[in-house]
Design goal:
This protein is an alpha+beta fold. The protein has helices at residues 22-28, 95-108; strands at 13-18, 37-41, 51-57, 64-75, 86-90. Helix content is 17%, strand content 29%. The longest helix has 14 residues, at 95-108.
């Protein structure tokens, strides 16, 4: 008697992202999303709407922030303008994400008004 393989589950992938410097956080943060979001460099293929579970570490903060986000955009390999390949993850509309967004914006402070290029839109 043979057993059929279990059907694949659509569990979200887990990505650990440790951002060590304020400049890197500025380049990755996505303030355009109401709930906030983060750009994650990756060569893995994602589709818009894919669920992604991110364990995010911020500069000078020992805490890791778990985020159950969704892929909101994809920068393909060899993207226009030599942009880094990866995905933009939109934070969910929940209290944990509001706290994380406030924490990121507190770290970035005046950098948010900068016109320096980022990895995001």
């Amino acid at each position: 008697m043979s057993t059929a393989p279990a059907p694949p589950t659509n569990r979200p992938s887990v990505i650990q992202l440790a951002i060590k410097e304020k400049a890197a956080l500025y380049a990755a943060y996505i303030p355009l999303f109401t709930e906030g979001g983060i750009f994650i460099p990756t060569v893995r293929d994602y589709k818009l709407g894919d669920d992604v579970y991110v364990l995010l570490s911020l500069p000078d903060d020992p805490q890791r922030y778990p985020v159950a986000g969704k892929v909101a955009w994809v920068t393909p390999a060899r993207g226009a303008g030599n942009r880094t390949q990866g995905v933009g993850i939109r934070f969910p509309a929940d209290d944990k994400s509001k706290i994380l967004k406030m924490k990121i914006e507190e770290i970035l402070g005046a950098h948010l008004a900068s016109d320096r290029p980022t990895q995001t839109i």
